[in-house]
Structures are given as C-alpha cells and as structure tokens.
Amino acid sequence: MKRFFTRLILVVISILIGFSYGYLVHRNQIFPYKHIKKAFLSNLYWKRMQWTIGVYEGTDPFNLSDPKGLENPVLSARDVSDVDAAFIADPFMVEDQGRYFMFFEVLNLNTNTGDIGYAVSEDGNEWSYEKIILDEEFHLSYPGIYKWDDQYYMIPESAADQSVRLYRATMFPQEWEYMGNLLSGSRFFDPTAFFHNNRWWMFTSSEGNGVLNLYYSDSLTSGWKAHPMNPLIENKPDMARPAGHVFAYENSLYRLAQDDYPSYGIQVYAFEITELSPNSYQEQSDSLIEIVTMSGKGWNSVGMHHVDLHNMGNKWFAIVDGLKRR
Fold first, then answer.
1. Which phi and psi angles does 110 have, rounded to 5°?
2. E strands, 75-198, where?
3. Residues 245 and 257 reside in one and the same domain
4. How far apart (Å, rounded) are the C-alpha atoms in residues 114 and 178?
5. What is the mean pLDDT of residues 75-95?
6. Which are the contacts of 100, defined by CB distance < 8 A and separation ≥ 6?
7. In terms of domains, do 24 and 104 share one?
8. CA-to-CA distance for 186 and 115, rounded, in angstroms?
9. pLDDT-derived band of residue 134, with 50, 70 and 90 as boundaries?
10. Given this model, what pLDDT does residue 25 score?
11. pLDDT digits (tens, 9 = 90+) for 220-242
C-alpha cells in the first residue's frame, strides 16, 4: 500500500510539473513552443487549408472557365522554394514589357504570418516562382499592384498592423520600399484601390467580413478621406469583403466581393457600381452576379475567394485562387 501511494504521488507531481511547464511554454513562448506551434499548424490546420492559384479565361468577365489544354492549379505552395509555405493565395498580375508578373500571399509556416512572393510567366499560363519580396513582422496578404506616374506601387493587406501600407518598387519586380501608411488605427481588410473620374477610391472591409467601407483621395500616395456614407454595407458577409480589383465592362464599373457565408471564401460576386462621388455611393445589390465559385471537386472543390481580371482584347483573362480541404 505504501508503494502504491508513493507511485501515485510521483504521478501527480509529474502531471503538475508537465502542466506547469506547458503553461510556461505557452505564456512565455520558450522552447519548444515554436516547434509545437509549427507542427500543429502544419499537420492539423494549414494542411487542411490548401489554397492554390489557377487561371481562367472567357469571352467576357461573367463567363470564365479553365483554359483548354491547361490543368489548374498553375502554382501552389510546393513551388515556393525559399520558405516553408503552407499555401499561396490572393494573386494579382501585371504585364510589363511583354512578361507577366504575379504577386501573392505566401503563408510562412516558420512565422505563421503571410509574406508576399512573386512569380513570372511568358504567356500567363505557365508560371515560375521567384522569391519572397516583402516580409514584415506582421501578416501581409492581398498585394494589390498599381501603376501611377510610371511607377509601380503595392498596397497589401496589413490589418495585423492596423494600417493600410504603401510600398513603391525601387527595382521592379523584386525590390520594394515602404512609403508610409495611407490609413491607420483600424484593421483594414483587403484594401482595393482604383482610379475613376480623376480620383482615387479604395474599398476595405473590417472584422467579421460583413462590413464594407469606402475612402477617396486626389492622390494615390496621400490624403485619403473616409466616405460620408460609411459603412456602405453592414452585417452582410456574403457580399461585403473585397475579392480583387474593380473592373470596367461595357461602360459600367463592377466591384468584386467574397461570399463568406456560411463559411469563408465560397465564391466571388460582382456588383455594378451605379453612382460614385465624394458624397454618394450606389450599387446594384439586389442581384448577385456570380464570377467564380467552388467546383465541388479538385483544386477548388470547397472555395474560391479572389479574382484578378484582365481584358486581353480578344478574351478576358483571370488569375484566381481555389481551396480544397483534406
């Protein structure tokens, strides 16, 4: 009996020591916190969230599909060679001197934050990953690219920094410098800027994905003001959060939005903007125009939440992302 109680006491002490050390590991992030966290995220969470990047094309922006003879996805986390990547998403493309450059989020498993990487292509279909070009201490994603006054700028999502940050290319496409904050003091999700009627505009979402706000400025680089009708949308996660650049088609302007209800990143809708000024905003929100949606199988079986549209003259071309879960 005495031996039994001795063993019981040792077991209890061992359990208490284990719990105490585990608490210290979690609270102070001491060894082996990073290894445990990485193993958990890699094996139990991120590997179930496989975002990859594909290309679509069509005769117009409302009838997109896989190009003939091309197998999607065209780029995945396996192509990332300089960091341990869980997934890639939020692609934006630009053409420069006959070559195509794609910028996108790379979820870095070593830091559990998003970095911005890029890839190059000669034809828009076959892509070669290059490297990470932006790596901050906080999460980055959704790297919108804009050319203004013959210079390239990037506005990635930096909600974790409670800001909208502006970067300028010092040596396009691989070197960028931080220029300052366009907006500060809140968690701005998926900032989407566009130039229309001699003025810059920018949509952003907020926590919960059900709110849409609008800002405007005479300059891309400074002077941004909140629109007096903010929030434009409230409590509607199926149509608020931006999902790619605003695009023009047949003299109309369209806003892209994620459908995040009942789950995140199901599909992308387009809404026609019918009125846009510093004092007013209206859009056709009574009809949902589906741009892309989950396919039920393969690389985009359970979700699509981003579209970057380009009018190529004889066709419309889109860089998209898709989600499958294991």
1. -70, -30
2. 85-96, 99-108, 113-121, 127-134, 141-148, 151-158, 163-171, 175-184, 189-196
3. yes
4. 17
5. 97
6. 93, 94, 120, 121, 122, 123, 124
7. no
8. 20
9. very high
10. 47
11. 999 999 999 999 999 999 999 99
pLDDT above 70 (res 33):
no
Residue 29, number of CB atoms within 10 A of its CB: 10
Residue 163, domain CATH: 2.115.10.20
Q: Read off the DSSP letter of residue 21.
A: H
For residue 134, give the 3-state DSSP assignment: strand
Asked if residue 222 lies in contact with residue 234, where contact means CB atoms within 8 angstroms, the answer is no
pLDDT of residue 148: 96
Helices (H) and strands (E) in the chain, counts: 2, 20
Tens of pLDDT, residue by residue over 38-80, are 555 555 556 677 999 999 999 999 999 999 999 999 999 999 9
The secondary structure of 252-263 as a DSSP string is EEEEEEEE-SSS
- Mean confidence (pLDDT) of the chain: 91
Provide the whole-model pTM. Answer: 0.88
Q: Give residue 18's domain range.
A: 1-30
150 token code pair? 């013959």
Q: What distance in Å separates the CA atoms of residue 147 and residue 167, rounded to the nearest whole number?
A: 12
Number of domains present in the structure of the chain: 2
The answer on 92 and 9 residing in a single domain is: no
Contact 56, 18 (CB under 8 A): no
In this prediction, residue 287 has a pLDDT band, given cuts at 50, 70 and 90, of: confident
Asked if residue 65 and residue 208 are part of one domain, the reply reads yes
Specify the residue for token string 């909208």: 164
Q: What is d(CA 121, CA 96) in angstroms, rounded to the nearest whole number?
A: 11
Task: Give the C-alpha separation, 248 to 306, whole Å.
Answer: 17
Whether 240 contacts 302, CB under 8 Å: no
What is each CA distance from 209 to 115, 206, 304, in whole angstroms? 21, 6, 15
Q: Do you find a cis peptide bond into 61, omega within 30 degrees of 0?
A: no
